[in-house]
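Anyone? Bumping this.
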Amino acid sequence: MMNRQEAARALVGALTDQLVVTGLGNASFDVYAAGDRALNFYTRGAMGTATSVAFGLARARPNNRIVCVEGEGSLLMNLGTLATIGRYAPRNLTCVIWDNQSYQITGGQPTHTESAVDLAAVARGCGIASACLIESLDELKATIPQVLDAPGPHVVVAKVDRTGVQGYQPRKTALIKYRFMGRLGTLPDVAALAWE
Amino acid sequence: MSWSDTVFECLKANALQTVVHVPDTVLTDLIRLTEADDFFDVLSPTREEEGIGIICGAYLGGRYGVMLMQNSGLGNAANALASLAAPYQIPFLMLISQRGELGEFNTAQVGMGQAVRPVLDSLGIPHFTLERDDEIARVLNGASKLALSTDRPVAVILSPLLTGGKKG
């Protein structure tokens, strides 16, 4: 397995103008620590829904690449999302799963991937052809450019350790929304909301 | 014009472009109408909780939308409403078909039938029950205005008095 912070830095370092959605907890903290961006939408709750948010965003923004980063515990809560991604096959969606085989932030309780559960195989079973399980940082660094550029959908499950970060992403959820939509240019025109 | 036709026209008039549904029988015609019209992006997730995530993501991307579900589905969506839609101030409509009350034949539907309004109240989601065809435009237009003005989801509950309910 690889050092999760090195993995996060490798991913974030490769980003240009992609839209990023991060799952709650360490997934958000890591991406923030690796380099905060206005086009990062950090979630702070609704565990499991990060991929669904990313999917909806991908449908609304076909000319953008959307990258979702979440932990395996989050994805396990919403496995149906892989079926939805397989069915609609959004070419502009890349999902990166940090799989440390545990619910680290709540005390390290093991998740199902500590046993035989292979989330990349689940993704392939849902019709997502580009789904891989990666063990080393070198493999990840080689894979990142492919999954950022080539048509997707892509699911990358990276086996990572439990190296965490100090510090948190912006706490104000409404500010996260306004900053993201403001930079993207999708905030509704305030004047248009001035009903007569 | 059926109630489905009227609702369909209202969805379009209010620019509710993204339509996410976990279907209920009474929603069949409405879903079919939206699927047949290129204006709408109609998506079918595996579960209502997913659907809330999708609707929120679409809104971030500039597309306003509506979630169609049966009231049983609200139970599957509660946390996504509470800890994603609400704190991130995402506006959308929810059209919730009502089971478990007038004319219900299935005991298993009654629990969420009773719970849907208290749950919406607990989540701070305004809700309005649609019983008559001649109220559809005023209720949907008003619900959408409320959602957009306050950056929050608003629910419109479709009574069996409007839809005829499910026969069984």
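Late reply, but here is one note on the structure posted above: Chain B touches chain A at residues 18, 20, 41, 43-47, 49-63, 79-80, 82-84, 87-90, 145, 148-149 (CB under 8 Å).
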